[in-house]
Design a protein that fits this description.
2 copies of one chain form a homodimer.
Chain A lengths: L4 H14 L5 E4 L5 E5 L7 E4 L2 H9 L1 H10 L3 E4 L2 H15 L4 H13 L4 H12 L3 H5 L20 H16 L6 E5 L5 H10 L2 E6 L2 H13 L6 E5 L11 E5 L10 H12 L4 E8 L8 H6 L9 H8 L5 E7 L1 H17 L1 H8 L1 H20 L3 E8 L32
Parallel strand pairs in A: 1-3, 5-6, 5-8, 6-7, 8-9
Antiparallel strand pairs in A: 1-2, 3-4, 9-11, 10-11
Chain lengths: ~425, ~425
């Protein structure tokens, strides 16, 4: 059977919309027919099951690819991550999104807006999944954000610990201070700050399952009197604190709510406090992957730094330090994907094979995006205009020493 | 003599335009009459010589204060820097610029635009002053930008050396690479990079005097074959280089030329190179002091980070690192002001007493602005989207060791 002219037209349309990435496209599960070939023989073969899938790809390549990969109508023979990296590069350089894909992206933004009720729904869909599922592939402390690897060969558990210390050192926490955390996941950072830096923490999250888990941990670790886990929206954070920290939540705030988020930060730290936001970002403003928004993270958005600066600037907050940890997120995702791949049978028992394939694509796609620079990871440390305890240099972030002696070592700037 | 109602009205107007700063205002050189008193007795006394000066202050406080302070019609009894700090704080919080001051600020922007010819004129006015004058109060290497003090007590010479190393480490220079510098002053950084990091440098500057001095230094240090000082506008930088660096020039580019500046950067480093810009910035967009623009730095502008991000983002450049060195510039200015004060007689012989007073006000005002946060100092390191040699962490910036063994010690990010 040779290709019909309709099929050939669809393939050409798909290639135009994806910037002609290097791969071999095969139609039909029997894979006799090569519909398109680009690049060397080392490049992967994409097997598209049927004409319906081909037509869906031509209409909205990103969402159709994700959905068809998830339910098995698309197979990738070869290195999935490398293929996704090539695809992202070619889409960045030469892709033209069609009207349907643009409309769908806009529609997703509309229905998944991160209003108070929308956030509740969006966060529930991802973070209220069974905690045993996340335990299969996260580190022992259940930190579901980019780790910080002091060396390339550090393990994931150490790197998540090092990330929390890196954040605490950037915040220059001092015993007795009050810290608020917006979006606390399963509570690891809040507990770490209280335990090792002697601060008291109010940690906010609207995921019921995560808060329940975090409270349990606080009790077990004897920290319930110093860490309060609050099941509430960040917009309800009230009261003056010494420091504000948010790791991996800004992605769920959405650009239309940045001004609101900025006001929450400013009323928390005022002109004398300081804070840190850690978030997935981009080199320039761009919508988040529509498939990820549809199936994995409804309402997600990764801002460019200009958008974050516009959040700080009207409040006269000083940006003290921006660090780009993009390759650390790639490394983190390598660990997660490895562990996930090692737990595929368990995950399949929990949620079925389609879930396994969808989440594998999400992890592999995220890894590819950080590797190729489609996504960045920024830590932004900031302070109110009259904050006076800025460290003189950043050398204290890199001081060696017994990590169990968590003694703040920065110097106070003096006049 | 008591105050006329006109004088009282003028004083009230001045206070409204400056946000009612804490000081005592006295009219007349004999200083019998206190026109206004705000704050404790420790606050300075401002002696305004005559009613004409009072009227000028009421019309355009910043320019009138600068000019009247310079020619002696205003005296500040007390700590000049502390007074200026208080003034800046109160102006930031509650000042309302009048129509005349706004019009004059707009007019300055118009006539001092940093076009090719405008830049030539603007740069000539400041940087082509007698090099012996700058030698009186800069460090021995003639570095006229914010130093980096590894410790608060480091001396100025060491701190300027440390700043150049800090920049070179951030750039991760490797022997044999090609670097372009936009705005090279008297050449210290270009020579340092070539001498200690083994790179070849093309360094641009439109100040004739500075280029002449820098070329002389290159010959003396035997570096003329590796450092080319080019008397030309940054807009004429051409050819692909491994790295782009610009320390203290962005302030002279002007926001209407940032897009152009971004294009120069991008065509220099492409997608595979990297660079660093070091500049005086602000927490939020705001015009530069009109008096400084009128008398000291025509065409100067200190951008907010959002404005700089808007320069990088359309070019898909990745921001790797932003460091705020505000207090280092305050410290640098303390050294410069000390040395300047110790050379007042020489400066007065060179340019007369009015020049001495004007430059003293400029240095003291800059010091006050960095102390109170009206100005910030940002170093932004960036790279093309496919730059692969990003250091794994920033720890290499803080490694100890013999500073004469300038061996790059970063780790290459590997996949």
């Amino acid at each position: 059977m040779s290709f019909s002219s309709t099929e050939q037209w669809l393939v050409r349309k798909i290639l135009r919309m994806t910037g002609n990435p290097p791969f071999q496209l095969v139609l039909g599960r029997d894979a006799h027919e090569v519909a398109h070939k680009n690049g060397s023989s080392g490049k992967p073969t994409i097997v598209v099951a049927d004409r319906r899938t081909l037509a869906e790809l031509a209409l909205d390549p990103e969402i159709a690819f994700g959905d068809a990969y998830s339910d098995g109508r698309i197979e990738v023979h070869g290195d999935l991550v490398a293929f996704l990296e090539d695809l992202m590069r070619s889409m960045h350089e030469g892709a033209k999104a069609g009207w349907y894909a643009r409309l769908r992206s806009w529609w997703l933004d509309l229905v998944d807006d991160n209003s108070r009720s929308g956030s509740k729904k969006n966060i529930h869909r991802h973070y209220d999944l069974n905690v045993d599922f996340y335990k299969l592939w996260l580190d022992e402390r259940m930190v579901y954000t980019c780790a910080y690897f002091p060396t390339v060969s550090a393990g994931l558990e150490d790197a998540q610990l090092a990330k929390m210390d890196h954040v605490c050192r950037k915040l220059q926490l001092q015993a007795g201070e009050k810290v608020v955390e917006a979006g606390c996941g399963w509570g690891a950072l809040a507990l770490h700050m209280a335990k090792h830096y002697g601060v008291t923490v109010r940690a906010f999250n609207i995921s019921h399952e995560q808060i329940a888990y975090a409270r349990e941990q606080a009790k077990r670790q004897g920290l319930a009197d110093r860490v309060e886990f609050v099941e509430d929206d960040y917009r309800n954070i009230a009261g003056r604190q010494d420091a504000f920290v948010s790791v991996g939540m800004l992605e769920h705030v959405g650009p239309s709510h940045y001004e609101e988020f900025g006001r929450v930060i400013h009323r928390t730290v005022g002109d004398c406090g300081r804070g840190l936001v850690h978030f997935i970002g981009r080199n320039h403003p761009h919508p988040f992957s529509p498939w990820i928004r549809k199936r994995i993270f409804p309402g997600a958005y990764a801002p460019a730094l200009s958008q974050v600066m516009h959040m700080f600037e009207p409040l006269n907050l000083s940006v003290l330090d921006v660090e780009n940890l993009r390759m650390h997120y790639a490394k983190t995702l390598e660990h997660w994907l490895d562990r996930f791949d090692g737990s595929v049978d368990r995950v399949s028992q929990m949620f079925g094979p389609e879930f396994v394939r969808a989440w594998r694509l999400y992890l592999a796609g995220s890894l590819a995006a950080f590797r190729c620079g489609g996504l960045q990871l920024f830590q932004v440390a900031f302070a109110g205009a009259t904050y006076r305890q800025t460290s003189w240099t950043r050398a204290h972030l890199y001081e060696q020493g017994d990590p169990t002696v968590r003694e703040p070592k920065w110097m106070i700037a003096t006049r």
